[in-house]
Fold these 2 entries.
Entry 1:
Amino acid sequence: MISFTCDYNEGAHPQILSRLMQTNMQQEAGYGDDIFSLSAKEKIRCATGCESADVFFLTGGTQTNATVIDSLLRPYEGVVAVETGHVAVHESGAIEASGHKVITLKSYGGKMRAESLKQMLENFYADPSWQHMVLPGMVYLSYPTEYGTVYMREELQNIHSVCRSYNIPLYIDGARLAYGLAATGMSLSEFATMCDVFYIGGTKVGALCGEAVVFPQGNAPKHFFTLQKQHGAVMAKGRLLGIQFDTLFTDNLYLQLGKHGVDAAMRIKEMFLKKGIPMYIDSPTNQQFPILTQEQIKQLEGRLLFEIWEKRPDGTAVCRFATSWATTEKQIKETEELLNNII
Amino acid sequence: MISFTCDYNEGAHPQILSRLMQTNMQQEAGYGDDIFSLSAKEKIRCATGCESADVFFLTGGTQTNATVIDSLLRPYEGVVAVETGHVAVHESGAIEASGHKVITLKSYGGKMRAESLKQMLENFYADPSWQHMVLPGMVYLSYPTEYGTVYMREELQNIHSVCRSYNIPLYIDGARLAYGLAATGMSLSEFATMCDVFYIGGTKVGALCGEAVVFPQGNAPKHFFTLQKQHGAVMAKGRLLGIQFDTLFTDNLYLQLGKHGVDAAMRIKEMFLKKGIPMYIDSPTNQQFPILTQEQIKQLEGRLLFEIWEKRPDGTAVCRFATSWATTEKQIKETEELLNNII
Amino acid sequence: MISFTCDYNEGAHPQILSRLMQTNMQQEAGYGDDIFSLSAKEKIRCATGCESADVFFLTGGTQTNATVIDSLLRPYEGVVAVETGHVAVHESGAIEASGHKVITLKSYGGKMRAESLKQMLENFYADPSWQHMVLPGMVYLSYPTEYGTVYMREELQNIHSVCRSYNIPLYIDGARLAYGLAATGMSLSEFATMCDVFYIGGTKVGALCGEAVVFPQGNAPKHFFTLQKQHGAVMAKGRLLGIQFDTLFTDNLYLQLGKHGVDAAMRIKEMFLKKGIPMYIDSPTNQQFPILTQEQIKQLEGRLLFEIWEKRPDGTAVCRFATSWATTEKQIKETEELLNNII
Amino acid sequence: MISFTCDYNEGAHPQILSRLMQTNMQQEAGYGDDIFSLSAKEKIRCATGCESADVFFLTGGTQTNATVIDSLLRPYEGVVAVETGHVAVHESGAIEASGHKVITLKSYGGKMRAESLKQMLENFYADPSWQHMVLPGMVYLSYPTEYGTVYMREELQNIHSVCRSYNIPLYIDGARLAYGLAATGMSLSEFATMCDVFYIGGTKVGALCGEAVVFPQGNAPKHFFTLQKQHGAVMAKGRLLGIQFDTLFTDNLYLQLGKHGVDAAMRIKEMFLKKGIPMYIDSPTNQQFPILTQEQIKQLEGRLLFEIWEKRPDGTAVCRFATSWATTEKQIKETEELLNNII
């Protein structure tokens, strides 16, 4: 059965597996000092146009968010995120476990608005009891967001500008970065100027696992490695992460995989719209959110896998269809037939 | 150049890579609900003779120790370990980061003695101010230890018995479990009766990454998964861990890899002893600690890689030679020649 | 100048100071083992009608909330509170610092509604990804709330009933408990049946400092004292807390002080209403929130101290006037004159 | 019965109680903004000769240590202390609870040696795996130590000098500072040049509670107040602490109380020595540690209270006799008689 449940249904891009095979018995140092990791870091510096960038490889998203956020905040500071942000909802309290509050702002289709951020910061320091509260110490965005939406150039610039005026870093969670860049057409090097630290998601874009944290200006906090280790986020066989990112950043593969996933998503979206099925949100990325009736859901049951995102009072449900780097032409065609014949 | 620096110099056992290739495009659920993980858990239950065991897969050792320990302790409790234990020294404070003290006992060649443990516990509760101190809430051992030594059946039983009499769980770090079992000849199912929770190390025994936590009596603390997620220790593509452990626990592969590493180590050890080079400790497992002179170290430089473990006042150094599942006949032969010709 | 800024403007009730003087040179054990603390605990057990209650004395509110909450939650659990709750806003992240998320619900005049709580809990466990989220592990209320409002008998019972059906404890912050009881006429022993743990606030009701945590059913978590110590919340000279609570619970003093503060507040409230000044909220306790215009605020400046609680878009401001056990007839009279002559 | 159990057996110095009475109904701001606290801070700046010192008042020792240490360390850093240091043993893991390891050095009669510290730091950075370990981020000493011993000028200078060469702050726990200064004759202003932050203990020197943290060079970490609040260490009625320290730092009272306690201790010590009873350690401060036989202990039972510090294999016990600011001539005389007649 075809699954659009998430963008980590499959293994890895074949080139990655093939590199793993080729290099398997080569003896290399541990903890990221292998030649693959060194090469991958260099390629990422090149792709982001940040020659002095600090780059670190971690295994998964929650771990990466917790480590980066902990590295940037003082104990009395919290991270500002929208209420639907991954760190605010789906990380089992990993941020709080390292002692930090997630300060939430209203979400607009998954996005933060520069004005809300500015207003919150102004109100905070205008409050006479601000010293009894958690200080807003950094801002967290996801790009694309958990709702598939994505910030336009100007939106990012405005948020970054508010951050700078309060001297707090902007951190972008790029778990699905390739899909966001494909949707907006922004280059990785332009993106890298829009924030103070971000991560390039591998897990959802062709890797078995792995996220690459980038401090574009070589601005990693001191002893980031030790903090990474403390968070259980240093892989002994760092080569596994090095080889994967080295492959993803060879011949532009990472961005191509992003484009592949977004193209597939646009075709799926088109199919729903043609059938008169409304979309919950106008997502330009690899996650699409059609609103299906209970009958439609029943008809698809057993033929297509996807996620029920949110049940609505009127009996319909927001559903999530996630394409990815791995979505095949065959899967799209079969989905089209299914939708045509059934709904 | 041949490296004995550590037991994670290579990639994975070829069967693992080949399984990854075969299953790569099969769509599977995330977070450990894939069929490989389910199958691997069943095989581990079978191999440990614990049919109701709770099994969880995590990525690396530090992360696993931090998660298990945090799951077993109350905030006012600490974990008892020898002063050379991995959690006490080489995890960048991961245990303390989750709020818990590591209470240290003297190490005897890397091992804890049941009597020291008993004495400490007796003294603790005899101290009138014990309520102002960190309560000893569990015991941590590594098997084999960081010095390659390994507990005999009776030693483990004695420690476990002290734990039981104080009603505190015994946790065994099995980062190199296969090498320990190969050295002692203990079966996995017997081992599983010796403690309350342990982990089966994959990273150092043929996997790319991965450790399998086993609660033999189905005694996992409630909501262990959520805590695992909070520690950034849940892999989105859980299949990567599932496939590896499923392979390692097919046809007894895990134990065979352990035997392979230990056999190689015994041959290396023999070579040193033949040359009259003393061993720092009599290790029956895959880590060997010859004491080399500065001249001997210089002679090997550029021909053989290994770790300087500890420099000694007399100018000699304790060196670590780690063999593994991946050590080849060729490497052993070449090492023999090197040692014969040079030292 | 008369100050209604807060309910901790003065020192202590004279009987407390006089007891401190009388007993000053009597040698007593530290850490709460003095005879005053033992006597005070017994009197609290009597006043609450809970003869097997566990009682602990701590110094201040934030410390008490952090300790109690940490003692009741597992690391993957959070505390549910309204968004205006003290633990959610004004404790500088003390709850998060011990690793726990504050899960917020909408506030209705400072109060939580049983239905909101029920709805949230139902939604939580209906969400297929609940294991990736922070589990709601307990409920926090303040009585009276930060807005001076107070739960009626039935409201408390309904919330407690939801808690019980989900098997999570209900904790009530009684920083101003005496004022709440005076307003509702509920007895302390009835109140004690409405929750699983609460604290009796001393600091705002006549003590120099001190809060008494009560586990009515003798249901204190094991080793609460050690956790209290870990939170820096054990006073070496426990006698200071013991003497104060022993005095407050002699001849019903605590409840009388509450009544005194509420009577004063009702008179102040009446004055504002007579002058046609609207109240932001209909508070029956010692905190009153008149909505003043900028002109009124200017007229009072330099004559009366109070807090600007919230500036409103129309130029008016919600102001807080807090009376207390210490408010004098003279202060009330002078305030009346001021309001009559000026506004 | 006379008690030498500890130096917090009594209430407060009478002048403190009398100031509390006089000022009781004066309305003052909360959280340390009262005029007493402001005055006390100024007097402490004067007494320490540090006109730009940052001064903060907290309630107790454990709380103070936890807050100061948390304010100075980054998450991957630990605090270095001797193995008998208060933070290492008797704070129920308060330091670890805020995420930091206590790195222990051998204790020499309760004291740290500059050479041990230097050696540890050298070894640490010489260890190739130091990035996998907890970084030594600051040094903690107590003055006097838990064994009544006290650092001489040069010893402190040497330790401070090692700290400076590694660029890590030196923090001194002055729970019993007055007794230490009385013993060494060092002035408070000289003492203030010997470290980067220290606290002046009130609880054990005449206050009901209260410790004053001093950053002599105005070098308090940013937002120390907010961190203090997070640690539950801000007193709502800050006046209680302000009045006490204002009194203690009027007319040199603090130092006089220290001298009084030490004088009493010297007389007690003399009595033991005259009777041929050996002292466990040669303490020049208010804690004395005679080694008593079981028979001697039995003879004193029911007549004199003191602490059994450590039972020894030969049946004797190290006992602690603590004098204080409150020890009376009558108590000393009676003790003398008791010792003469009984032992």
Entry 2:
Amino acid sequence: MQTDDRGYRRYWDEERETRDPRERERLILERIRHQLDYVYAELPFYKRHYDAQGFKPEHVSTLEDFTTKVPVITKKMLVADQAEHPPYGSYAGAADAAGIARIQGSSGTSGKPTFYCVSRTDWDRSADLAALTMWAMGARPSDIAQIGFPFSLFFGGWGVLQGLEKIGCAVFPVGIIPSERHLELMQHIGSTIFSGTPSYCQHLIGVAEQMNIDLRKLPVQRLIVGGEPGGSLPGIRDVITEAWGASVHDSGSTSEMYPFTTNVTANPEEGVLLINDEVFTEVVDRDDANTPIPLGERGAVVYTHLWRESQPMIRFWAGDETYMVYDGPTSCGRTYPRLPEGILGRLDDMLIIRGANIYPSAVEAVLRECPGMGAEFEIFIDRKDALDEMVVRAELTEAAARSTASNAEEREGLRREAEGRLARNLQIRIPVELLEPGTLPPTVFKARRVVDQRTAAPAPPA
Amino acid sequence: MQTDDRGYRRYWDEERETRDPRERERLILERIRHQLDYVYAELPFYKRHYDAQGFKPEHVSTLEDFTTKVPVITKKMLVADQAEHPPYGSYAGAADAAGIARIQGSSGTSGKPTFYCVSRTDWDRSADLAALTMWAMGARPSDIAQIGFPFSLFFGGWGVLQGLEKIGCAVFPVGIIPSERHLELMQHIGSTIFSGTPSYCQHLIGVAEQMNIDLRKLPVQRLIVGGEPGGSLPGIRDVITEAWGASVHDSGSTSEMYPFTTNVTANPEEGVLLINDEVFTEVVDRDDANTPIPLGERGAVVYTHLWRESQPMIRFWAGDETYMVYDGPTSCGRTYPRLPEGILGRLDDMLIIRGANIYPSAVEAVLRECPGMGAEFEIFIDRKDALDEMVVRAELTEAAARSTASNAEEREGLRREAEGRLARNLQIRIPVELLEPGTLPPTVFKARRVVDQRTAAPAPPA
């Protein structure tokens, strides 16, 4: 058995994680055919949808058939089905209470929340899968893992907790508390892992600075991030890595795809591994979900549960953009394909400004490489004389704000540097406005970066 | 095997729960001697304390020896020891990260929090014990359990979660959200169990009234309450039972005593059972912890972990008052002693007003039986001409406020009724002031009932 530098075995499930990809594809196809038969026979939601589209499970005999012939499902369809078949939809499967282990919900900011139910079998299997992925990120029984995700209606923190518990880490499930307290607890308890969103890890950099805490001297060695894009974008990841002196491990897909840690970072330089023998992941044409695209090209991600019996997602259109590569086993010896920069952003979040397509996460990745910029920024969009105008309003770091307080020229230099880098990377000129630290609301969970005045609701009729 | 009315077995562990009390006492004594030897040999905190008091484990050969000879430990001693031996104190035992399964903390409102660490062995054992107690309260795999305790640094919600998960309920761990949402979720998901503090369950009665929701028509059949006294005081329990049409199951001791659900209600009429083969519980003289008192008399509660290896509490003085009885097996067939009214209150919370000893929970129990009184009230204490004055300021229910809005006489009747009942029950005249509903801040977690102007901090010297 191979061991790591702490004397633990290298893999949670060596045979599975280092399997020959062709052999794995055979197993994946087997599970796909099983799942298609199951959902068509047992789950009315799928039966109706497939019948309406003229699709039958027997149309699939290869993975290519799967991509080109199986219609996708969308969040909108799930919401509509749950409204008709409350509370879990007609795609729920074992949805009597005795079969359900766990119920969670989405925030439902735009109306009713979506509800997730996980059967006992799926829940137990997910614990093992979450342990496999946390292990791939380097979590070991000797770690103390402080979790900064909320434990609530939302699914977020629960998956991380489940995996770390299964591994046997000392779990310290703190949730959302004042940032100063989080840092004090890391110091006092000696936490070796911290888990939260990438934007929160960035926010803590500024908080530590104000408290005169050197994050690099904290015992934290690994940051398990997720819940939003960014953790695999080099510009963002490098800033966090540097400030914390800790490796940044991106993970997670969407609540629908529980066990959602199947997107997981072992070696940050290589991006996110796709544990595709648990959740089969495709990247397809963003305008046609049945059109495959070549490896390396950007497209829309589509996920499939290979094992879930409760609310299984078969070709779920997540609305996220990414690109996938496979170029042999990664440095850790795992044979999974990967997303070199993780999830790039939500297709819906893409801003179209004067004809250019811009993701907020791309703006952020550039800003992270600009000297003097703090954790918080916003992308402010307005319409002026029928033209869309975008301004990036970025906070300075405490240090940069101090050192340029009486040196307007130096400050202007920082501003120009940021504008120059944005223009070079995004091929569009975006004005930058600098803000004092603390001007914008601090990020404590998922970041909200875009203020779009174009979509502000018109005044109601009098 | 005996089954209950839903076809499940009656007990989680029949042999243990129905054991002959004398046989159980023999086992308890065996464990006590084991624990005394262990803590004296392995945990410096106990060694120092026992040496200073001239106590040696071999002094104990009967349960009476245990009560009369073993010095108690207090919260203050634990806090001091943790300050000297951070983070878990010299009473922690297996406190390296690889041995710890779980870390939690107290709020530490008055300074540094206390930290709790639970070893893997203790954690796994606690899951089984929590399942035993949740089963005694009637939780079954077919239940949908909505949890309204927070999941955070504090230990509160985690014990309930662990027990319900082990049983195999459908767990819906929602935490603290707006009260209207909690009620909507119960309705939508069909939750059959709700868990929260008794004061929060009372608060929800008023919220439901405002929303025109009849709690009795909700699917909730059991309320698992704890975290504060009250759930076993008939006045409080009956109001909640009546309004919800659900049985009220008090449970829980203190964070130090994890697995803290060893105080548990099977049949609400009989009060709280003490699972004393897990946590041995004594009620002793409030002025001398080594003086036993007769069954049925009020005194101070002292707890002992019979199984914990990590941070075991041996004769922990919880600072709570109660009385214990044993009069044969309870109606459920269990052979444990019980606290007929649960924990009555904290010894420290006892108010001394003009010589009378008054617990806030006693005031509350009386108010719950007074017509027209809503969920929220406060006990306002001030010093007037060197005399302590207590006023109870109680909100009316929505209905009572409406129906007496233009009938001052009727409202005065309600006020007098409350004053009369308080005087009869507490042997002291306490003026009552009525408030409109919504005047006081709503209780969403533990209730804060006492506003003591006598203890307000004096202005700092200039």
